[in-house]
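Figure S7 source data.
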Amino acid sequence: MAKELVLEPRLAVGAAGQVWGGLVEAAQFGMALVDFDARLMAVNAAFATLVGYTPAELVGLNLVDLCLEDERDTMVAAFQAFRQGSRAVAKFETTYQRKDQTLAAVAVLMSVATEPTQDRPLVLAVFVDVSAGRRADDALRAERAELGRMARFTTVGAMTASIAHELRQPLAAIVTNGNAGLRWLDRPSPDLSEVRSALQRMVTEGHRASEIISSIRAMFSKEQQQRRPVSVDDLIREVLSTLLGDLKSCGVALRLELLDGVHPVEADRVQLRQVLFNLVTNAMDAMKAVEDRPRVLRIRSEGLDHEWVVISVQDTGTGISAENMDRIFDAFFTTKSHGMGLGLSICRSIIEAHGGWLSAAAAHPHGSTFQVMLPVQTRTAERSTG
Ligand SMILES: Nc1ncnc2c1ncn2[C@@H]1O[C@H](COP(=O)(O)OP(=O)(O)OP(=O)(O)O)[C@@H](O)[C@H]1O
Ligand SMILES: [Mg+2]
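Tokens for the predicted adenosine-5'-triphosphate complex:
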């Protein structure tokens, strides 16, 4: 029967001492023998690996100096307590700066042990790398913060943020038309009919802005929303007419495949218009970066099983990476320098509130397709009446 090993430093002599030394050297945990001034006297291979020095370089170095500057106090305090005899054990986490300047999060366990031959007090220290655990904690904290932000967004901020997002376009149009009107007036012989049309467009955009505010308020209020039969095709044409100038200046060719006669849907017209507007704006943004192929915007409407109306908005733009595909509908997710990251989250809330679906997929060979599915009017009506 194997002789029982007594793993106590005081008895680490003779044959057992060799086994003990071998075990320390082979241990997966970093181990070190340290004097009362925190100077390293002996280290095992795992500790050397942990802090990125060779064992020979480590002997004689001070344990405190290896710590990240901001985190030295705990280590200093532990050794002070050891010297004063007020403590014999210390346990804490700290961060070591490796020789290559990278950082290692380390749990430290230290115990005062009196060396038997010279009756000299020393400190035995064990180090465990907790970087992986700390990274997981950080990720968890970040996730919690994100959830908190989302929760706040779905309450107070959502309405404000949505209004801010959706009013950008009509406000920009009002400013553009105001400036155009002023330029027409400033001419030596002012063209009053042009001024009148600019003012007319400002009035239209002003009305549009106030409709948007009401529809967003309705979206967030608890009252039943006002829904009416809406022809999807008419709505698509209306949105495209407001964006025609932008499409042209962006060099986008338009392919419309409207299946006239598709059943109307029962919807808040203003909200649905905003959905199409946001999808087309995104498609244009995605194509602006493309120089080596035609920029084509294809919009289709079709009926499905007499129950659904499907609207597809397809572009030949940059496409969406697989990694981002899961996140594009999240509020505040954007890859654009001036984006709010709200367009798609607003679109999805609106479509889902209408009993429909909004999804995205890669288009072939390039670009993306966004698909809106809405129940046809009869279905919604049946549902809402029971
Ligand atoms: N048609 C598209 N092609 C490629 N990427 C797209 C397309 N539509 C959306 N995306 C990606 O999804 C992200 C989120 O879109 P979303 O409309 O929610 O916000 P945004 O366009 O970035 O900003 P905002 O609409 O608030 O101005 C975009 O930043 C972009 O990365
Ligand atoms: Mg957008």
